[in-house]
Input
Amino acid sequence: MTTHLYCVLPDDMRDAIPPGLSGLAGAQVRALPVDGLVAWVSDIARDVPVSIDGVRAHDAVVEAALETGSTPVPARFGQRFDDDDACRAALASHADSVESLVADMQGFVEMTLIITPSTDRMLHDLEPVLPEMFDLESEGPGPRYLDTLRKREMATAAIRTAMDELADRLTEAAGSLARRATVHQTATPLPLRTISHLVSRRDLAKYQAAVAAVHDSSEFRFLVIGPRAPYSFSALSDSGGAHGMNLAD
Output
């Protein structure tokens, strides 16, 4: 068996695990005291594979911790240790950073804004390009094919520029209500902007009202997700990362 790490909280949360809470592979979640802090962990077989269901189970435990009223520092999914001592040792090797991070996150949550163009906007900008994209005679390295690629890039760039403008308006609306902000880099080929803000729990209603006042349109939409645990603000170093605390940093 291995010790799977979900998150780290202040020491006074060691008795806060909801009765019957299970995590990855249905394993019971338990508290592991670590020098003034507490880690929520499970005993997991070594051969449990990485899966979408596993990621969801991991996140469900972290969100259960958030619902206690404390703010957990979530661990990046997949960090398993040979035993409890190895988990403690890994946390102890970053003790100052982990303690500071846990203290810094208390009272805050993550809110995420996802900005996407509407189908109508994408079709409008790509309309001059679409006939050539599906013209079989334009395939190959010839001038017509290369011109089609150039036009498609220009159309996509126009969409991205417009989304950046909406992102700026949302960031301005959030203002001082967002203690920190990070823009996520996505690998998707579709135009997309994802911004996360670190927001005080007591300012949530003000934050939600502020971003709601920025009207989307028939061309663009934005989706507000949260409150969630601060995955995007839990890096232990300046190397960044948007998926939780990584003890390998």
In short: The longest strand covers residues 108-117. The chain has seven helices and nine strands. The CA atoms of residues 177 and 206 lie 8 Å apart.
